[in-house]
Structures are given as C-alpha cells and as structure tokens.
C-alpha cells in the first residue's frame, strides 16, 4: 500500500461499490450456492431438496464414468501442456536467435492468440472431416482410418491437436519476452565459456527461464482444464456419446443436460478445490520471484 | 553461424505455416461454392464466390440461423467485446484506486473479497450463476450477458499493480496544491495510466469477444447470439445438411476471428506489453 494516502469518510466505499456489488451478486452468491447444493439432493420435479451430507461426493467419486473422465482430463491436460509448451519454446528460441525477419516471425506466430476456442474448433472439425477434410486425407494416406466423433482415440487426438494449436501463441509470447530479458552480458559470457549452443541453452538460458516456465505451466493447466470447453463442445458437436470429455465439460453435461444439480455441484466443488490449490501454488511462486528479483 | 541460422529459419517458417494454414483453408474455402467444396474438399486457392458468400452470410437470415443475419451477430459480438472491456476498465480502475490510495476501515477485508474471485473461474460455478442470473430476469439481455463476466477481478489486479508503481511524490504534490482525491484521480492518475488502459482494453476486448460458455447458456434468443456463440449452431446445421454450405460456415468463422485478430496484430506492441507486464 501507499505511504501517503487519502482519507475520506465515504469516497472509498463509493468507489468500491460497483465492483463489490457485482462480485457479491455474480460471484459470492453463486459460489456459495454451488457449495450448498453439493450437500443436497434436489427433487427432480422441483419440490424442495433434502440434506444428504457427503453423499453427492461419494456418488460422484465412486462412479466409474467419473474416474474415466478424470483420467482423460489428466492425460489431455498433460499432452496439451507438454506439446504447446515445447513447440512454443522451440519457436521462441529460434525467433530470439534470428536477426532477419524477427518481428515478422513474431507476428506470424502470435496472432492466433486472438482466435476463440470454438472458432478454432469449427475450423478444426472441418479440417478433420471425413469427406472434405485435408487432415483426414493425410491420415488415410498414412494408413490411419481416422474417424472423429466415432472413435474414442481419434476424437481425443483431434481435440488435443486443436487445443495445442490454439495455445502455442501465448506460450510463445511469454517465452520470447523471457528470452529477451536474459541479459546480453550473461549470454556473451556463456558463449565465451561454452561452444556448444545446445549445452549453453540447457545450462544457462533454460534455468533463467524457469520462473516463466513455471508460470506458463500453471496457465496451461488452467487452459486445458477450463478454456478448452469451446473446442471440446465443437469437436463433439453437442453429441458426447461415448467420446472423451473433460471434467469441466461433465459438470456442464450433468448440470444442464442431466439435471443432476447435486452431482454437478459436487463436481464443481471438487474442481474449485483443484483450482484453489493451483492458484495458491501460483501466488506463492510469484511472491518468491518478486522476493528474489 | 550462417548454417545454423538457415535451420532456424526453416523451423520458424514451418511453425508459421502450422499456425497459418488452417486459417488460410477457412478463408479460401469461404470463396468457393458449396457444391464444389462438397465434391473436392476444402480449398487452398481463391475461388470466385467471395463476394456472394460474404454478402449472403452478412445480410440474409436463414441458412444457419432462422431469424438473424451475420451482421446482427457481428453487432452482438461488438456489444459484448466493447461493453465488457469498458465496463471492466471503469469498475476495476475505481476499485483499484480505492484499494491503493485510501486508508479506511474494512479496506483489507474488501480487498480479499474482490481478489477471491481470481480463485474460481466462471466454469466451476456455472450452474448456480445461470440460475441466479435467470432468476433476476437477466437471461437474454445484454446486461445479463456482460455484467456477470465482469465479476472476476483480473482488471482490478492489473490496475492495483500499476497504481502501486506510481511514485508517492505525486500524491504529496497534489495534496500540497490542494487537489482532492477526485481531482487527483481524473487529472493525474487517469492520464498517467493511458498506455496501461489501452493495453488492458485490447486484452479485455479480445477476451469478451471470444466468450463462449456464458453466452451459450444465457442467450437462447437468436437475436442476441454473438458470432462465437453461434459456432455450434452453425456446425449443427452444417452436419444436418445434404450438401452443407461449408463456404458460408467458413465465412462466419472468418468473421468471428477477424476483428480480434486485427486488433491484436495492429496494436501488437501494446498488447504484448500489457499481457507480459500484467502477469508480473
């Protein structure tokens, strides 16, 4: 906080009022409602609800479908995070390296950031389409009989490719800015000491990128968990059937399609705990970084 | 040195193509007619139906939607993007100003309440949010579409960081000159924050324009559909058709990506600065 501050009996409250009103009505109330509903069993015809303690959680966790969804979410998140981070890092290192055309490459590699996930999903579905999609033709030429929407693995593959494509730009932007902030003197000193540029990268540059990488790791996990909703919804075309879905998609399916309010809320609360843990880890890392810099 | 640079360029060109080609497919396919796409697949070269296709999706209802034109959806996207960006900036600047520049009882308490919103994204509290907003009679309205999205404190967090970096001497000088808190805010702090406001505006506009889950739930009336929200409808009609209007579907996808992409490319340096700085 500031050393010098204003004091005024009413003004700070008036300044805060709009934000607090919105947070209260559209955040605290629904969040509290989600937690409350997770302990109740809602009558399907809307005639009240009964307190059932932790039953909703037990039902959710013991359902075989939930563990299948959880496993898929884990593998999907790991794949999206790994591939989008490593491709972006490779491209950022190269873009930091070249002298000619550096700014053109930067623009060409970052603009996809602005495309919405469902729009990427629509274009992706068409590229993977069995009749008109060039990616499907390519797969066939390689002897892969790809069937998006029918085959579990093929659908998961398409989701992952689209999600990685959409996520590369933001990782690229952060890695590049991280690389550009590595002091020139450090790079020159390293170049004198070590001729192998790949060893130089892994022993000098990469450790200096660690804070950026860690921050991006959290951002990417959050993205894979939540922001891929639009991609998944489009790839599944609203017909999940036996196809892979993520945990967030399942909250939506059970709550809005299945009308299982208690179950959906219990799943929400489980996700809240997960996000809470991720955010706490992220804040602690940021604090540490500020402390050392 | 020369040799290694060559391979750097090869990798960068491949990377750029990987990002570019899907969108080139979308753009080029939108300039062909539905029958030839159905026969020959997606296209990578320009066709002769560019103007017809875009005129049709922009001005004619029917096809993918029953009652609205692409122009209406474009307008709704614009309302959402701009409304969200302006609303967020105004509300979060005021709140951040109160938090950083005033000492008052409950200040810390309010600070934590506001920042607790950073912990839980909309997706995990989606069902109760929907029920509450619907109960307030805000379903199928612009305010129901925009205001609940503003509840997250990202903007407040960015402005708080920025205000904290503004030198204390400015407040002292303002106080000596007899300027009150309101005058200090309008005459000194807002002009100082110009670049920050611009950067956050770009990020928030793109974020608002690209919203999907919330609009999907809260707008069931087609006249309030945004382009991004319309994507699933478009895909479902496309799947159901005998000879699908792939050109028109791609044209709508291109329209949905064009404004945010243009803004990000044109204001690239502000955007990157805002994005990278705000995360520190």
TrEMBL record, chain A:
Location of the ABC transmembrane type-1 domain: 70-282
Transmembrane segments: 70-93, 105-128, 148-165, 204-226, 266-286
Main location: membrane
Membrane topology: Multi-pass membrane protein
Superkingdom, taxonomy of origin: Bacteria
Keywords: Cell inner membrane, Cell membrane, Membrane, Transmembrane, Transmembrane helix, Transport
Subcellular location: Cell inner membrane; Cell membrane
Quaternary state and interactors: The complex is composed of two ATP-binding proteins (UgpC), two transmembrane proteins (UgpA and UgpE) and a solute-binding protein (UgpB).
Similarity comment: Belongs to the binding-protein-dependent transport system permease family.
Function: Part of the ABC transporter complex UgpBAEC involved in sn-glycerol-3-phosphate (G3P) import. Probably responsible for the translocation of the substrate across the membrane.
Official protein name in the record: sn-glycerol-3-phosphate transport system permease protein UgpA
Species: Pseudovibrio ascidiaceicola
């Amino acid at each position: 906080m500031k050393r010098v501050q204003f004091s005024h009996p009413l003004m700070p409250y008036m300044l805060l009022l709009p934000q607090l009103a919105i947070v209260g009505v559209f955040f605290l109330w629904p969040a509290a409602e989600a937690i409350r509903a997770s302990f109740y069993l809602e009558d399907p015809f809307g005639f009240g609800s009964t307190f059932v303690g932790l039953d909703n959680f037990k039902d959710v966790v013991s359902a075989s479908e939930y563990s299948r969804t959880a496993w898929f979410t884990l593998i999907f998140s790991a794949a999206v995070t790994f591939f989008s981070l490593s491709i972006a890092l490779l491209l950022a290192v190269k873009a930091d390296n070249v002298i000619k055309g550096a700014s053109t490459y930067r623009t060409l590699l970052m603009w996809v950031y602005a495309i919405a996930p469902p729009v990427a999903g629509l274009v992706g579905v068409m590229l993977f389409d069995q009749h008109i999609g060039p990616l499907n033709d390519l797969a066939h030429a390689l002897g892969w009989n790809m069937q998006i929407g029918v085959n579990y693995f093929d659908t998961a593959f398409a989701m992952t490719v689209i999600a990685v494509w959409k996520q590369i730009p933001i990782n690229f932007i952060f890695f590049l800015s991280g690389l550009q902030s590595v002091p020139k003197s450090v790079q020159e000193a390293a170049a004198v000491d070590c001729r192998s540029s790949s060893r130089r990268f892994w022993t000098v540059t990469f450790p200096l990128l660690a804070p950026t990488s860690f921050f991006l790791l959290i951002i990417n996990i959050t993205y894979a968990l939540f922001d891929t909703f639009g991609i998944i919804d489009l790839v599944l075309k609203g017909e999940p059937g036996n196809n892979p879905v993520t945990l967030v998609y399942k909250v939506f399916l059970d709550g809005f399609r299945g009308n299982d309010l208690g179950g959906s809320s219990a799943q929400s609360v489980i996700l809240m705990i997960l996000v809470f843990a991720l955010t706490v880890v992220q804040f602690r890392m940021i604090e540490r970084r500020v402390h050392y810099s | 040195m020369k040799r290694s640079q060559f391979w750097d360029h090869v990798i960068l060109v491949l990377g750029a193509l990987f990002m570019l080609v899907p969108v080139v497919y979308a753009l080029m396919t939108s300039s062909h007619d539905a029958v030839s796409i159905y026969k020959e697949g997606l296209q990578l070269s320009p066709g002769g139906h560019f103007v017809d296709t875009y005129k049709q999706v922009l001005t004619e209802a029917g096809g993918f939607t029953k009652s609205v034109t692409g122009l209406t959806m474009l307008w709704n996207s614009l309302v959402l993007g701009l409304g969200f960006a302006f609303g967020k900036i105004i509300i979060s600047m005021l709140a951040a100003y109160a938090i950083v520049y005033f000492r008052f009882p409950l200040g810390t308490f309010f600070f934590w309440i506001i920042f607790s919103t950073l912990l839980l994204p909309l997706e995990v509290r989606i069902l109760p949010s929907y029920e509450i907003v619907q109960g307030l009679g805000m379903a199928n309205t612009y305010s129901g579409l925009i205001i609940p999205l503003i509840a997250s404190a990202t903007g407040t967090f960015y402005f708080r960081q920025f205000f904290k970096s503004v030198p204390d001497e400015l407040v002292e000088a303002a106080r000596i000159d007899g300027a009150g808190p309101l005058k200090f805010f309008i005459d000194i702090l807002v002009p100082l924050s110009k670049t920050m406001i611009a950067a956050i505006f770009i990020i928030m506009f793109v974020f608002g324009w690209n919203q999907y889950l919330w609009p999907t739930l809260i707008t069931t009336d087609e006249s309030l559909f945004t382009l991004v929200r319309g994507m699933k409808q478009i895909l479902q009609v496309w799947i159901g058709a005998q000879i699908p209007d792939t050109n028109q579907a791609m044209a709508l996808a291109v329209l949905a990506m064009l404004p945010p992409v243009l803004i990000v490319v044109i204001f690239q340096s502000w955007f990157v600065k805002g994005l990278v700085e705000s995360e520190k």
